[in-house]
Design brief:
The complex is a heterodimer. Chain A is built from 7 helices and 9 strands; from the N terminus they run ααββαβαββαβαββαβ. Chain A is elongated, with a radius of gyration of 25 Å. The two termini of chain A are about 45 Å apart. Chain A is of the alpha+beta class. Chain A has helices spanning about 5, 20-30, 50-55, 85-95, 115-125, 145-155, 185-195, and strands at about 35-40, 40-50, 75, 100-105, 110-115, 135-140, 160-170, 175-180, 200. Chain B is α/β, with parallel strands linked by helices. Chain B has helices at about 25-35, 50-55, 60-70, 95-110, 140-150, 170-175, 220-240, 265-285, 300-310, 325-330, 355-375; strands at about 5, 120, 155-160, 180-185, 210-215, 245-250, 290. Chain B has a 7-stranded parallel sheet with strand order 1-2-7-6-3-4-5, sandwiched between helices. The longest helix of chain B is centred in the N-terminal third of the chain and has 20 residues, at about 95-110. The chains are: A alpha+beta, B alpha/beta. The interface of A and B includes residues 157 and 160 of A.
């Protein structure tokens, strides 16, 4: 999944001459917390609702007036993302820099924005259930050809795989979590065990018949 | 006596000999009741008309079901969940589906017009079917069609789904409907098909707060099931004040079910059925429509559904299963049928994590009620 698949486009933007009061109103009206600042199509900064609240706070040593310009409080030279970046790269960047948004720039033009909330949406899309499906969890040896052996077993049964997640489990195994388009995952698990797969879910029932 | 709806044509809703959704389960149920000295008098329904189907299903979907049932090739049938390993095409698919829908509709009309209080539809309960998508053995959604019929006639419906799988099709079709509450108890979608039925699925628009889901931990036993059942269902019914209950009485939460992982026994089912009938009396003027549903253990499902009939009619539950019935059907199964009617107790140590499971289920029920009751007033 790439940044272009999840970014907000077109982004709501302001200019360096926008007043803090107008920038704040825009955030309230659009229910957003991050505004890229542009001159033409060119990105020159980012301002967040936190920037505005801190800049105008009565607790600040020299509070800015509501009529001040955004140019005086914005972050210049913000870190940006490319539309072709994988979403996990954006997540890592935002996490490392402790920021909540990345303007997306393509060929020098601002084309969109990705926020932490968009990344949560991406997480839901990647792991969520959008088609009726059952869960299948299989432990595979971490060797070439093992995943192919599993997917070809499923394809021979005409089963559609809706999603696949995998993570390493110890040094020599990989845990595969699949959502397959079938209500009959228990019967499928029986057959997988007969074919020497290590099926973690669904488990064998612990009680005798 | 409860009215019982059935027609031999229900047997035509069959996906092949090895398919779990076998009409034999209902034949075994009827035969068991007959051998117990309670031959069931049934009311024959008419199959549903195409207009009945189109109240819920898209015309392009019905057209494809008909074509597949007539043996025609439908190149894009997979996009509609048809012709899949779970829901394969079979000759006469449309007609067979319409018989089951017709049965549930007949049951609804007996209640809405005929003044009947308790009706048992010995089939149907196809809760996974969507407007334009077949899923989990379900082609046409008899429940949603019958519920619409009841609400149209002024009876608001509380739909209670005790099948082990989430009643996703019914919930989706009625998601924005303020005249129908849906309550589904099921094994959590994190582990079991269809994957949905989380507590945050609460309905939308005027239906917000009227769609309740209780996703249960795998290996939940009767004690914990009944605890959350008691906590959630009456609270919902009290708020909603339905005119009628529609109950999808799937028998696949039984511990012997080959497709799922809950651990109810027949004694748990007896307690559940008795409570539902009490709630129907208290909250819905005694009006209750039961359908069947999932339930894929030939050893368990016929006993569960025979129990439903006995409890609905205030008949005693026998100690033992009739020898004639056992010998007739044992030969068709891979192990003989037990002598006792009820299951043996599973014992306290059947699941080592029983207390942890019960605690999680309790929290889920509490979080559900907290979230849903925010919309109740």
């Amino acid at each position: 999944m790439l940044v272009r698949d999840i970014m907000r486009t077109p982004a709501v933007v302001i200019t360096p001459d926008t007043t803090l009061a107008d920038a704040y109103r825009t955030m309230q009206e659009k229910r957003i917390r991050h505004l890229p600042v542009v001159e033409g199509h060119h990105l020159v900064g980012v301002v967040t609702d936190r920037d505005l609240r801190l800049a105008t706070s009565a607790l600040a040593p020299h509070p800015f007036a509501p009529e001040s310009r955004v140019a005086d409080v914005m972050r210049t030279k913000p870190v940006t993302a490319d539309p072709s970046d994988p979403v996990e790269d954006s997540a890592r960047t935002m996490r490392e820099l402790r920021i909540g948004c990345l303007p997306v720039v393509d060929g020098g033009h601002l084309v969109g924005v990705v926020t932490g909330i968009d990344l949560l949406d991406a997480l839901i899309r990647m792991t969520g259930v959008d088609k009726p499906s059952g869960r299948l969890e299989v432990r595979l040896p971490d060797q070439p050809g093992e995943l192919a052996r599993l997917t070809s077993f499923l394809s021979h049964r005409d089963l559609n795989i809706h999603s696949v997640l995998s993570y390493p489990e110890g040094p020599e195994a990989v845990r595969m979590v699949l959502r397959v388009g079938s209500i009959e995952t228990r019967l499928l698990a029986q057959d997988l065990r007969r074919a020497d797969f290590d099926v973690v879910w669904p488990p064998e029932k612990p009680w005798p018949r | 006596m409860a009215a019982v709806i059935y027609h031999p044509a229900y047997r035509s809703y069959a996906f092949g000999d090895d398919h779990p959704f076998s009409p034999r389960r209902v034949e075994m149920t009827l035969d068991l009741l007959s051998e117990l000295g309670h031959p069931v008098e049934t009311i024959a329904p008419e199959p549903a008309t195409e207009a009945d189907l189109l109240g819920v299903h898209a015309d392009y979907y019905v057209r494809r079901v008909k074509a597949l049932g007539a043996g025609e090739e439908v190149a894009d049938c997979h996009e509609y969940g048809l012709g899949t390993p779970d829901t394969p095409a079979f000759p006469g698919m449309d007609e067979a589906g319409r018989w089951l829908v017709g049965g549930t509709l007949t049951a609804a009309r007996l209640i809405a017009e005929g003044g009947q209080r308790r009706v048992l539809q010995l089939g149907g309960g196809l809760h996974h079917a969507r407007r334009n998508f077949a899923s989990g053995f379900c082609v046409y959604n008899d429940l949603a069609i019958a519920i619409n019929e009841l609400t149209k006639r002024g009876l608001w419906v509380a739909y209670l789904d005790i099948d082990v799988h989430h009643g996703d099709g019914v919930q989706q079709i009625l998601y924005e409907d303020g005249r129908a509450m849906t309550i589904s108890l099921h094994e959590s979608g994190r582990y079991l098909f269809p994957g949905t039925g989380e507590i945050h699925e609460l309905g939308s628009g005027v239906g917000r707060g009227l769609k309740l889901n209780v996703p249960l931990e795998p290996f939940t036993q009767g004690g914990s099931y009944l605890e959350v059942f008691e906590e959630v269902v009456p609270a919902g019914l009290r708020h909603f004040s339905p005119g009628v209950l529609v109950v999808q009485a799937g028998a696949d939460a039984h511990f012997d079910d080959p497709l799922a992982d809950l651990m109810l026994t027949t004694r748990d089912y007896e307690a559940i059925f008795r409570r539902i009938l009490e709630w129907a009396d208290v909250y819905a003027a005694g009006r209750v429509l039961f359908t069947l549903g999932g339930g894929y253990s030939f050893r368990a499902a016929p006993r569960v559904w025979a129990l439903l009939y006995l409890v609905m009619n205030g008949l005693p539950v026998p100690e033992t299963l009739p020898a004639a019935w056992r010998s007739r059907w044992s030969s068709t199964l891979d192990a003989p049928l037990t002598e006792a009617f009820h299951d043996p107790e599973l014992g306290d140590d059947a699941v080592p994590t029983r207390d942890e499971i019960a605690q999680r289920n309790r929290q889920v029920a509490q979080r559900l009620l907290d979230a849903a009751s925010a919309y109740w007033f």
